[in-house]
Fold:
Amino acid sequence: MDKNELFRSIPKVDVLLEREDVAALTERYGRTLVTEAVREQTELLREMIRGGTDESAARQAVEDLVRNVERSLERQCAPRVRKVINATGTVLHTNLGRAPISREQAEKLTEIVTGYSNLEYDLENARRGERYAHFEGLLCRLTGAEAAMVVNNNAAAVLLVLSTLAAGGEVLVSRGELVEIGGKFRVPDVCRQSGAELREVGTTNKTHFADYEEALSDGTKAILKVHTSNYRIVGFTESVDAAQLAELAHARGIPMIEDLGSGVLVDLEQYGLSHEPTVQESVRAGIDVVCFSGDKLLGGPQAGIILGKKEYIARMKRHPLTRALRVDKFTVTALELTLLEYLKKESVARNVPVLRMISEKEPSIRARAEELAVLLRASCPRADISVRPCRSQVGGGSLPLERLDSAGVAIEPWDMSADALERRMLALAVPIVPRVTEDSVLLDVRTVDSGDFPAVAAMLGEVLG
Ligand SMILES: *Cc1c(COP(=O)(O)O)cnc(C)c1O
Structure:
């Protein structure tokens, strides 16, 4: 058969658009998108024929035309940001959205963001209010601070704090605390950006009180302490206590600032983890301004929480950068809901997902791993499925040395490599992100909700079927 005849077998665009199945697509996606997709698919078909494809393949492609139009439309209209199942065991996974919030919180959030709210309206006095008012009192109550505000993330918080309190002067930072965290946040760079000059103090492993004393000058506007959240210097080390530094700063009439990084409000030792400095400890130590992330160990939305002395927080609220860094109603709402959970001390570890996941003990995780293994053995007959001990990480640059005893389900496929299985898992409708060792794929159950087990088993059944 000649090419011309094949070309003629391609239906005309306007004829296609009249077809019942295409009309159904128009109903769903609108005429503009459907016309575009039809044009695109018929053009692909023409190219294929021009390229000299064999007749039966061409006929099949004509047959599949409408189905391909539909697929193309589905692809274009599907959101690129999707739910994934985090089977890495890393609780604060930077690439997977860091801290999840709870379903209950998300439902309340939906109600607020799908309508109007009192975000900046003072209902009691019928006038303009402040968006920070919703959680400022709560933050103060939980931490003992005098005042609080919030910006978009902790990097923004550090920038605002230094811009407000140290621009045009020097800020003292220990050489052991010149941190870089993921996403190119480097303390020296943020300092420069704020207009403050960084004055390095001490050495990488040891910084003494006297080093700070000597570095102080008339130009010093603040002392900054940075929690080395994502690494530890071990061995022959020394750093100066925040409380001592606060005294030194106060004697000079300058503020003592601390970037806590993760910012926990509860003592992690009660969950068997090592001690992580809490926000309350910093406030008690007399630090004037403390900042930390909302979506690391706090377990809330992405935010940079700043709290401390009233006069300093008031200055930050007036700073022009604040308007550029301000949080929206999603953040305000989710943050207030997260903080409210901390009021109820006894239930906070159950109701904040991050705390629930880091505090789950190995026997409980192992029991859940056994449940998942049973489902997987049923759905994946062509793989060896076993429950194995493993260790999870907290992640998000928090508690870098900590490994939490956990349990995982190992999948050893008979007919493909572990790498191949991983790639297929990432291509699923709900991608599953596993840990991969040489010959097996491991699902660390710590970060997998039991409610997702049936779906995980069904999807893996398809992949390994
Ligand atoms: C994580 C971290 C930041 C940045 O916080 P984001 O909320 O990710 O912007 C700043 N400083 C320290 C010490 C951190 O650990």
